[in-house]
Amino acid sequence: MSDTFDELSARARRGELPRPEQQRLDTFLKASFEARVWHEAGRELDAEDSVRPGDHAAVERVMKRTLTALSSKPRRSRRKWVVLLVAAALFGVSAAAASVQGVRWWRAARGLVVSAPAAQPQAQAKTAPPVAQLAAPRRVDAVPVEVAAEAVTDAAATLVPSALVPVPAVTRASPANKTDSAGAAALFSEAALARREGNAERAIALLDSLQQRFPGSREARSSDMTLGSLHLQRGAAAAALEHFGRYLRAAPRGGLASEALWGEAQALAALGRRAEADARLRRLVERFPGSAYAAAARVKLELAAP
Amino acid sequence: MLRLISGYRRSDPPPPDGRRDELLELAHAVQAGDRAALRTFLAQVVPHLLRVARRVLGPQHSDVEDVAYEAAYAVVEGLSRFRGEGTVLHFACRVAVLTAMNVRRRDAAQKRARGVAGCDPDSVQAEARDPEEQAVLGALAPVVRELLDTLPEPLAEALALHNMLGYTVQEVAEQSGAPVETVRSRLRLAKQALRKRVLGHPRLREVAEPLLREEAR
Fold it and tell me: With contacts defined as CB-CB under 8 Å, which chain A residues touch B47?
């Protein structure tokens, strides 16, 4: 399969093709106009894929819109299912209870009840004769719906076997972790807001605080990228380099790894360490040939070539 | 039973290339309603959605950001349908491809309604950035984009995933839920359509003539 033109073309565009396979691809390209056009079109699309000024702001705008839209939409939560299940269980239990009462009444009406169950309290046996049990369902009909519902709930609280009580879904984090997560998220959001408002200093302070208070959180890891960009914009290349590097150490193949390598290259170039900057660009092209930053890195490397 | 309904978590399927899917855990957390995870997930995915929207619509299209937003929303909403075919990122990119293709088709329908031909060589040239580049097969990207508007949807999807995003045939098959051989067949038809379109384009045909002669030999 791997020797077909389609595979070779896709892998060549990712920079994953060893020499013998590259030769096979060249043969395909020489022999077929169709293949040549197809491959060239793909390469042209790859080359077009450079990073654009304002991309970061565009990403933030899209994120904000998505978060707003998702939060305004009523969530089909798991709680809904749990409530439905509880309601179904309660219904089943009350139906069972009612049928037991019905049987008792039927037996009593026919004079079949010989004695109350041994466990039944004496007083109750005295005040609740079989006839009263007969009347009970009728009285319930007359009770307002809210009160009836309360009564059912109370009854269910004692009647529902523990096996039917819904166990909370497996929690992914302890309460303390949840608090941490919420705190980290709040700081992250606040920093994003400060950044959008152009207050880089405050954004940096908030993100630094986030990293100190919640060092293991996802937000802390992502904030390295934001801190790197902010420091780079402010000319603090050494600090930017540290943050991009930290992100890469934590997530060498993370979703933003190509961007982090690009950031490292920029920071190194700003520090005058050209050779290291070029090495980062080459690493970026090698590891993420299809990424948005690889095309820009190739152009930079070509320009830097003697 | 409760776990089946509410707390259900698939075991993490290994991605096809054997690497760990970085976004899978985040996606699970998003599905479980973790708001912080949602933010992080979007921060990781949205740059890719923007890139895909740009590829399919063209870099200068005014709807790139809107498409990225619509795709981001659809990805989060559709995570429950993700069954581990390929990676979460591939799933997200496919959603963006389909969203962007819808926009292209809508635009094309509007153009047709206004009486403008689907393939307008002038508009192709207007999209090209550099006339010299265009002269050496530099106008292929707009031609591929236009092709998306005219091909039947399964073919257009295969074209977009394979040629525009550079997915392998296997990855296209996983994402589109079609057998590998079907994908190959769709790609073959898409290639033929691209050839036809290039040869129908006066300037591209001029550039292509030597290549055609080479092929004939």
Answer: 55, 59, 256, 259, 292
| Inter-chain CB proximity B169 and A184 less than 8 Å | no
A28, closest residue in chain B (CA to CA): B215
Q: What's the pTM value of the predicted model, to 2 decimals?
A: 0.51
- Alpha carbon A66 to chain centroid, angstroms: 13
Q: Cα(A115)–Cα(A269) distance, rounded to whole angstroms?
A: 95
The secondary structure element, H or E, covering residue A122 is helix A122-127
- Burial of A291 per CB tally in 10 Å (0-12, 13-18, 19+): buried
3-class SS shares of chain A: helix, strand, coil, % to 5: 75, 0, 25
Sort out which chain B residues have CB atoms less than 8 A from A10's CB and list them: 162, 166-169
Query: In terms of Cα–Cα distance, which of B152, B11, B19, B165 is closest to B95?
Result: B165
Residue B121 is predicted with a pLDDT of 35
Instruction: Please indicate whether, in this complex, the C-beta atoms of B208 and A33 are within 8 angstroms of each other.
Output: yes
Write the DSSP string, A153-206: HHHHHHHS-GGGSPPPPPPSS-HHHHHHHHHHHHHHHHHHHHHHTT-HHHHHHH
B68 touches chain A (CB under 8 A): yes
Question: How many angstroms separate the CA atoms of A155 and A258, rounded?
Answer: 60
Q: Find, in chain B, the residue whose alpha carbon is nearest to that of A7.
A: B168
Is the predicted ipTM greater than 0.85, yes or no?
no
Instruction: Kindly compute the dihedral angle of the four CA atoms of residues A268, A272, A278, A283, in this order, to the nearest 10 degrees.
Output: -20
Report the interhelical angle of A19-31 vs A5-13 (nearest 10°).
120
B184 pLDDT band, cuts 50/70/90, is: very high
CA dist A225 and A259 (Å) reads 8
What are A195-223's pLDDT values in tens digits? 766 788 888 999 999 888 888 887 788 88
Q: Which two tokens stand for residue B206?
A: 């001029």
Neighbours of B49 (CB within 10 A): 31
Q: How far is CA A188 from CA A140, B32, B130, in A?
A: 54, 20, 42
Tell me the backbone φ, ψ of residue A63, rounded to 5 degrees: -60, -45
